[in-house]
Amino acid sequence: MRLFIPATPVPVRTKGAFTLIELLVVIAIIAILAGLLLPTLARAKEAGKRISCVNNLHQLGISLTMYANDHQGQYPARTTGASIDDPRWTGRLQDYYKDLRVLRCPSDGPQVPNSATNSPSLADAAPRTYIMNGFNDFFGTSINDVTVNSIVSDSVIRKASDTIFFGEKKSVSIHYYMDLFEGTSGNDYQELEQAMHSGIGSNYAFADGGVRFLKLWKSVGPEFNLWAVTEEGRRNYAFSFGH
Which residue, of 9, 160, 179, 192, has the greatest Cβ tally within 10 A? Predict the structure, then answer.
């Protein structure tokens, strides 16, 4: 008599299903790939913002040059923006750059409500990343020498490739003009955003039409302050800030 031994049933695997171990392996691989790709994607995203910022500054630089060409070589007068007919540079240049979004760098942080201005000019009151050269050293040696309606001509720019027209300010700053004369307690230190991009530097529009990325503090020193227009000012207002 033969003893009948029933066959051990073989588990039937559902088509397309994964075992727990396989799922854990897949999850681990995805986590590793994400860890490798996310920093790269973040850098790519920041690179895109930086390029957009460069384009904004390029448009502002062209706008300032075109304005001067249409006004006997004179740049916009420095005003208080109290009247819609007498706006600051943001309003005076709007006919040339058109879109108010040009005033905002995508990497800039949240704007403080009403930090821009109480000016009736929409351009003056728009969220704004950029700050214009106040050309202070052309007028004298004190901020008191820079009066309302002070005007600078393009003829005072002797080193266009080393003179900044526009830079990036701190998000909370309400300033429109980068002023010298205050040293490390003034605009150089408190109003400029020296490291808007990747925490190492910012973009600047120069008088020659170019836009360059400068690392921390390089716009104000250590040998020359690139916001100054006179030889004396370029040397006298150069700061190292310990860097």
Answer: 192
Distance (Å, whole) CA 123 – CA 144: 27
How high is the pLDDT of residue 114?
46
Residues 34, 31: Cα–Cα separation, whole Å: 5
Query: What distance in Å separates the CA atoms of residue 34 and residue 40, rounded to the nearest whole number?
Result: 10
Specify whether the CB–CB gap between 212 and 167 falls below 8 A. Answer: no
How far is it, in rounded angstroms, from Cα 237 to Cα 183? 7
Token duo for residue 118: 């109480």
Burial class from Cβ neighbours inside 10 Å (0-12, 13-18, 19+) for residue 130 reads: buried
Output the CA torsion sign for 82, 87, 88, 91: positive
pTM flag (> 0.85): no
